[in-house]
Amino acid sequence: MHPIQSQIEGRLAEAAPDVEVLLAEVSGETVRLFIDHPDGVTLDLCEKVTHLLPDVRERYALEVSSPGLERPLSKPAHFRRFLGRRARVRLREPRDGHKTFTGELVGASDVEVTIAAASGVVAIPYDDITRSNLVEE
């Protein structure tokens, strides 16, 4: 998880506690922030979140959006919530010749996610993951 995600989560926990930060990724001069909310994500909510993060906007262009169908997964709780669903997990370093595993989420402890991929069941430590998201079936 990028350090800016912790900073954003802390700010929103106080100002908008119902907003869940799914992923904050930095790409060059832009921060892409994926959020969720129990009542769904609206344009108004995206604008509200944008205005709650002036310190981020001073340093980066900020894009705030809903998770969409290929929802990002960045925390153990995200993986647990979607056990039984298909996901794509990308690794920092290749494992058994693969940098990406796609399959059913079958387990999620506090340290690793277990995925039933085409090549077999694989346990992947969260620290080895660069990006992960649900995959539409």
Task: Explain what this protein looks like in three dimensions.
This protein starts with a helix and ends with a strand. Strands 7-6-5-4-8 form a 5-stranded antiparallel β-sheet. The model has no long low-confidence stretch (mean pLDDT 93). The longest helix has 13 residues, at 3-15. The chain folds into 2 domains: 3-65, 2-Layer Sandwich (GMP Synthetase, Chain A, domain 3), CATH 3.30.300.130; 76-134, Ribosome maturation factor RimP, C-terminal domain (SH3 type barrels). It has helices at 3-15, 43-51, 54-59, 76-81; strands at 20-27, 30-36, 61-65, 86-95, 98-108, 112-117, 120-125, 129-134. The chain has 137 residues and is of the alpha+beta class.
Comma- or semicolon-separated keywords:
137 residues, alpha+beta, GMP Synthetase, Chain A, domain 3, SH3 type barrels, 2 domains, 5-stranded antiparallel β-sheet, 3-stranded mixed β-sheet, 25% helix, 43% strand
Short description:
The chain is an alpha+beta fold. 25% of the residues lie in helices and 43% in strands. The protein has 4 helices and 8 strands, in the order αββααβαβββββ.
Secondary structure: elements and pairs:
Layout: H1 3-15, E1 20-27, E2 30-36, H2 43-51, H3 54-59, E3 61-65, H4 76-81, E4 86-95, E5 98-108, E6 112-117, E7 120-125, E8 129-134
CATH fold-level assignment of the largest domain? GMP Synthetase, Chain A, domain 3
**Gyration radius, rounded:** 16 Å
Percent strand equals: 35-45%
Under CATH at level 1, the class of the largest domain stands as Alpha Beta
What distance lies between the first and last C-alpha atoms, to the nearest angstrom? 26 Å
The count of strands amounts to 8
Task: Describe the main β-sheet briefly.
Answer: 5 strands, antiparallel
By CATH, the architecture of the largest domain is named 2-Layer Sandwich
Element order: H for helix, E for strand: HEEHHEHEEEEE
CATH superfamily of the largest domain: Fe-S cluster assembly (FSCA)
Q: Low-confidence parts, pLDDT < 50 over ≥5 residues?
A: none
Number of helices: 4
Shape: globular
**Average pLDDT:** 93
Q: Roughly what percent helix? A: 10-25%
In spatial order, strands of the major sheet run 7-6-5-4-8
Q: Which class do the helix and strand fractions yield?
A: alpha+beta
